[in-house]
């Protein structure tokens, strides 16, 4: 930034200090930030997409073993987590609306609520992981999945090796998602601090908007993870 | 973004409506999963249709894709989904036809 | 410049190079031009590393016996040659150096859309590079740059995890560069710079960026899976545990095939600029060239399994991918036709950049056509995993991409450094590169056709003469590469100062001083002319003035 510092002093006050010097107008800056975040989310879709592709192939190949493995994870907790994230997405848009309408207390409250929902999500996830750890369903040396019935074929047992693939994908997909949640919480902590300092106005709250985009994306990933992982052949 | 200054309450109505719809969709997914549709292989497709509807609601209304003046953002979303679809479809072209030969 | 006397030094005009001094001003810069130079130094360093491995490979292959290195070592040599050259040289090269420098200037902006993310890109690259260096120094990796499973996940005793993570980090550097370019090109064009007036260099980088954005995340997640499988013995790719090794290959090649278009498209953009300038003509079929760049980016994602024809995919899938691979050659051919048509009835000048451009067109065509041989299933059965494939991709990567990079470095060197390189030496170097390249790699087509497998450190004695020719060529090629490094460095101190536009080229970057000031343009440019308006430029120049420096 040393290059641009020399240029700041002569014309302070002539434009919004939030306008960075390589942009011509604030609208250009906001549109660039928005497009940049959408493209980044595109990369994230492809990132998770590789996992969804692997999941698709193995689910078709080993449907019965995957179904057996899926029944052993808690769909009620998964569903609750889905609801938690949906509520957190609502609080995000409400926080942005509060910024747009200069409602400072509401904005701060909604940001805090979003983070609390995020923490709740991680807490419930932690409970699920602990259950899996206790049941030896974590892939690796201590993995065990013997004598688990295939839902559509009572009396037949799932192949533990194929079930391990399910759990490997389960942990990697939900783990990667949880990692993105943690990053999201970090982002929102920073947004909360900026909001507290009065950085956001109805005129300028771009960081809230693009932080919100990221949060909604994390929600969307979970919207797909939930039925795919938790609800295979649940009707048996 | 300046449209919102004119209609302060309508975005709120939309947000809450979408929120209710999302929660309903979640419940619906859970409920339908417990109904046996295996004869028509319908469980997974229905779950995915509901999930896609929910994702669209979030993208269009919470992420403001619907009001976007430029088509560019929608192009970004569509291209990404298209290439992900290519990855899955062409990979499946291999897996689905392996036993034919 | 002014006439310096013995006692009075002329005041050097302020530009991006001399505005701030000190290591900190470089390491914490957000100026896209300085970041481009940071990349230039870094990728040149890794080029030496990759070249060192190539040297050892060619030395080993001088004799049929495996006598220079052990088999395990040889595996590490070709693996690391590939990884370093692909991920740490070719993929960044033109975008990170020339793209970073020129994209903002060509669109008429002061910088890229996200200057700090640009710097972050470089730091990610450096971190990845340090990881890779550490990996190579503490045991290396021997899986082939392609990391095929289950060897990489279950059997290799080398540092697969560290190499995989290094490439993961490098991938994010690439993604952020691509993201920056796309947003800049969409949002920061100067008034009057419509899409139809953009230099084709920009279209090429736009297409490249699309690939970087959409493809790189897939290899990133694939490497995560490999690392997880290797660390935790998962079985996603292990047939003994129900996994499918081909799934790795599908995911790997989904990125790695489009990656080759990341490597070639920017070079095509450079060649287009050079051919237009040194023929003093508008590019023939501007919209065809622009759209063919986008078409290459899109089609390039549809062909990946042509790397897997003999790996065990179904014949029907192989048929589909073979047909699609023929389709992807069409937009590339369109470009070759357009370059040729541009040259026709042009006023051709044989300066060094143009020599590299000619080299590119010929060698890329050969490389591309041999790609079609490989796309034919019947042929591929015989030449897959032989030196035919190696020759094919080196013709495109080295004869194509690297030549384009060198041509671009020569073309824009006056702008970047403010100095002129010595033209005589440059033409000599271009010739040496061209001859050395063909001597190195043409014999490899024959070797592959005759059946010599790739990645083997020993071979039947009847292949020796061709291998000796290839190694001799590599030595000549090395000289050809060293020469520009030497005279570019020499020119920074002793070269003639460059005028603003030594080539009388079209493009906004040539309307700035050489070297440019930090914020590129004194005033935001307003574009009212079409791209490649060489007829107007030459008409405006004085009749007796020689259009190009030479």
The CATH homologous superfamily of chain C is termed: Cytochrome c oxidase-like, subunit I domain
Radius of gyration of chain A using CA atoms only: 23 Å
Unreliable segments of chain A (pLDDT under 50, ≥5 consecutive)? 1-10
Termini separation of chain C: 19 Å
What is the CATH first-level class name of chain C?
A: Mainly Alpha
Give the helix proportion of chain A (percent range). over 70%
H/E topology pattern of chain A:
HHHHHEEHH
Tally of alpha and pi helices of chain A: 7
Q: What share of the residues of chain C does DSSP label as strand, in percent?
A: under 5%
E-strand count of chain A: 2
Count all strands of chain C and give the number. 0
Give the SSE layout:
The complex is a heterotrimer of chains A (236), B (101) and C (550).
Chain A: H1 2-8, H2 26-61, H3 63-71, H4 75-100, H5 104-134, E1 149-150, E2 153-157, H6 160-196, H7 206-230
Antiparallel strand pairs in A: 1-2
Helix pairs in contact in A: 2-3, 2-6, 2-7, 3-6, 4-5, 4-7, 5-6, 6-7
Chain B: H1 3-6, H2 9-33, H3 43-62, H4 72-97
Helix pairs in contact in B: 2-3
Chain C: H1 23-27, H2 32-60, H3 71-90, H4 93-107, H5 115-137, H6 151-155, H7 160-187, H8 200-232, H9 245-279, H10 286-299, H11 315-343, H12 352-375, H13 377-383, H14 387-417, H15 423-450, H16 464-494, H17 534-540
Helix pairs in contact in C: 2-3, 2-4, 2-5, 2-16, 4-7, 4-8, 4-14, 5-7, 7-8, 8-9, 8-10, 9-11, 9-12, 9-14, 10-11, 11-12, 12-14, 12-15, 14-15, 15-16
Care to give the gist of this entry?
The complex is a heterotrimer of chains A (236), B (101) and C (550). By secondary structure, chain B is an all-alpha fold.
Describe the protein:
- The complex is a heterotrimer of chains A (236), B (101) and C (550).
- Chain A is an all-alpha fold.
- Chain A has helices at 2-8, 26-61, 63-71, 75-100, 104-134, 160-196, 206-230, and strands at residues 149-150, 153-157.
- In chain A, helix 2 (26-61) packs across helix 3 (63-71), helix 4 (75-100) runs antiparallel to helix 5 and helix 4 (75-100) packs antiparallel against helix 7.
- Chain B has two domains: 1-67; 69-101.
- The longest helix of chain B has 26 residues, at 72-97.
- Chain B is flat.
- The termini of chain B are far apart.
- By secondary structure, chain C is an all-alpha fold.
- Chain C has helices at 23-27, 32-60, 71-90, 93-107, 115-137, 151-155, 160-187, 200-232, 245-279, 286-299, 315-343, 352-375, 377-383, 387-417, 423-450, 464-494, 534-540.
- The radius of gyration of chain C is 23 Å and the shape is globular.
- Classes of the chains: A mainly alpha (236), B mainly alpha (101), C mainly alpha (550).
- The interface between A and B is large, with 48 and 48 residues.
